């Protein structure tokens, strides 16, 4: 079986020859080739230039034996055409200069067709597909409505999500309207990526773990499900639904939708799969910091995960979150080769 087949077959819970593996943030700052480009271009310029995004997407595919490519983009540029002023500040990360805090702010947000508003992303997908020439499938992605709303309301990253949660609890109708708009934008964006040639999609709910299961179910799940159903009802591509810190709400993520549920390292993978049931595939779930350990430790940790779900079709090996900066490149290569060669 070729690299072109494994990942998509595993998404469908079909039998594969070896466990497929790709890594979140596999195209990024830990790679010397990426850092050389970063010395010449600002981050948003790289995201919005299809030639550069294509080059970065292909770097790990050329360097490692991964079973899928994921287009080089970022979750936040979708906020710009909605009317938010986004800037990436060196050392501080993304900043939204006009955060959403009031009902009037929500009403001012525009939802434009993604084929126009995010044309640089769909152009990159088309270009990457041509460059890959069928060697491995291509994954597109978006942030989930809750994570994007949190950025929009907080104005950037947050530790306690005070502004977002205050809006959620204190102005539930404003929150509902904001989440409705964001779910429409996300669903449309994912549809546009599939139409451009993405063969799988991933929805990142990086901040869902900030909520209790009850609050996730009440304030988030219906909107996430709407975005996912916009895709699954119209596009014949598998969708991976991933959240961090969500061990206590995995069945709720499953209810929200997705053919594959991504799992972080805070729960054993077999336990997570038992909670989810056999109707979905799973992706995960090595702690990214393990990649700083000696190679025998990396292999031992990966073997433990692989052994825990041995014989169950539908496992895609991945990290429990993105590759960290300064991760040794040779350790990434060793992990990918080990997963393919293990049993």
Give the arrangement of secondary structure elements.
Elements: H1 3-11, H2 32-38, H3 43-48, H4 50-63, E1 69-70, E2 86-89, E3 93-96, H5 103-108, H6 114-117, H7 119-132, E4 138-143, H8 145-154, H9 162-170, H10 172-196, E5 200-205, H11 213-219, H12 221-232, E6 239-243, H13 250-256, E7 260-262, H14 269-276, E8 281-283, H15 295-308, E9 315-316, H16 329-341
Parallel strand pairs: 1-4, 4-5, 5-6, 6-7, 7-8, 8-9
Antiparallel strand pairs: 2-3
Strands, count: 9
Q: Bin the strand percentage.
A: 5-15%
User: Taking strands numbered 1, 2, ... along the chain, how are they ordered across the largest sheet?
Assistant: 1-4-5-6-7-8-9
Averaged pLDDT, please?
96
List low-confidence stretches: none
Order of helices and strands: HHHHEEEHHHEHHHEHHEHEHEHEH
Q: Which bin fits the share of residues in helices?
A: 40-55%
CATH topology: TIM Barrel
Q: What is the name of the CATH architecture?
A: Alpha-Beta Barrel
Number of domains: 1
How many strands, which pairing sense, and closed or not: the largest β-sheet? 7 strands, parallel
Q: Look at the structure and give the CATH class.
A: Alpha Beta
